[in-house]
Specification:
The protein is of the alpha/beta class. The chain is about 35% helix and about 20% strand. A hairpin with a 2-residue loop joins strand 2 and strand 3. Helix 1 packs antiparallel against helix 2, helix 2 packs antiparallel against helix 3 and helix 2 packs parallel to helix 6. The longest helix has 21 residues. The two termini are about 25 Å apart.
């Protein structure tokens, strides 16, 4: 199977070859890991990238100093998806993390309180989604390791501070710092007017959260956001202090991750709907679930039966019908595997 490497990946590979420092090599490899197509034809290449990245991180740890950042600040993925929180100083990222998860980040009314990435698990119905609070981004602070985490995340949340007159300046600084690191946040549209289309950049999916909606003057600033950024980003009003907008944010994040939850059952037994479902990308098939249950099922799977969830949007509901291996599943489906 051909690798079908993208121009963005090849550009990152060229930056790796030209890198002069360990930190630059680590950043380029992290970008390559984020950009490489994930399929059977690139499995060996992915393994080689992981091996080289692990070796460089070990070297960085031994050397110490600033070059340790990429090794120290990598965030292991957990849950059904990883979402990073991006924003200017005091935009309320840490408060949002504390409101939506059980994490206890340091929160203060002075800038740059967050120095390290802080993960927390956000519950949504019967699954957990990982939120990662990042250090604030400004014209004075943006470390190379931050780009690697943003690229590898499934989604970014750009936090806008409705309580300050400097709201637009803060957003511009964040977006500019990311573009300088060859990252463009892509909301409703992947291409943004004014961006040099000749640049090989990583497009990272993003939403905008309008935080502090209960502050004085917040509604006026919200209208400004909608006017200036409404065509580029989906904007979700939110208050980290009161929790207003929390449920809308939870469901929107789940939907934008593009994942489905699938339950499995043994033949002749009921499905355990109270257990943890398998989470897969939208468009996944019976074979994808079978592979997630046990890799041997790829070769031994005979057939499968599907029961539709009550919230399924299909026009035709499935009630134990036999389906092909390539049958696409929907959120909440129950799958009975016969191997």
């Amino acid at each position: 199977m051909p690798a079908n490497l993208t121009p963005q990946y090849l550009a990152a590979e060229q930056r790796f070859k030209q890198a002069a420092t360990t930190a630059e090599k680590i950043e380029a490899l992290e970008e390559m890991m984020a950009l490489i197509p994930k399929h059977k034809g690139t499995e060996k290449l992915q393994a080689d990238l992981r091996r080289r990245l692990a070796k460089l991180r070990t070297e960085a740890e031994k050397k110490g100093g600033v070059s340790r950042a990429s090794a120290m600040y990598s965030v292991p993925r957990e849950g059904a998806g990883q979402i990073v929180l991006l924003g200017a100083p005091n935009a309320g990222k840490s408060s949002l993390l504390a409101r939506m998860t059980k994490a206890t980040p340091e929160i203060a009314d002075y800038p740059f309180t967050t120095r390290l990435p802080q993960p927390g698990m956000m519950p949504f119905e019967n699954i957990q989604i990982q939120l990662v609070d990042m250090p604030p981004i400004s014209q004075h602070l943006y470390e190379p390791w931050m780009g690697g985490i943003v690229r590898q995340a499934d989604l970014s949340l750009l936090i806008a501070d409705l309580a300050t007159d400097a709201m637009l300046d803060g957003i511009d600084e964040v977006l500019s710092a990311l573009v300088n690191s060859r990252i463009q946040l892509a909301g409703k549209s992947a291409l943004v007017e004014g961006l040099d289309k000749s640049l090989l950049v990583s497009y990272c999916r993003a939403l905008m959260v309008a935080n502090k909606m209960d502050a004085t003057g917040a509604m006026e600033n919200l209208e400004i956001l909608r006017e200036l950024f409404g065509e580029r980003f989906e904007i979700i009003p939110f208050s980290s202090s009161s929790g207003e907008g929390s449920e809308v944010l939870r469901r929107t994040l789940f939907e934008r991750l593009g994942i489905i939850r699938v339950y499995t059952k043994a033949p002749g037994k009921k499905a355990d709907l109270g257990g943890t479902p398998y989470t897969l990308k939208r468009g996944s098939t019976v074979m994808d679930v079978a592979r997630a249950v046990h890799r041997d099922f790829v070769h031994t799977l005979k057939f499968a039966k599907v029961w539709s969830s009550e919230r399924s949007h299909r026009s035709i509901k499935f009630d134990g019908q036999m389906v092909e291996r390539t049958h696409q599943l929907e959120d909440g489906d129950i799958l009975e595997i016969h191997a």
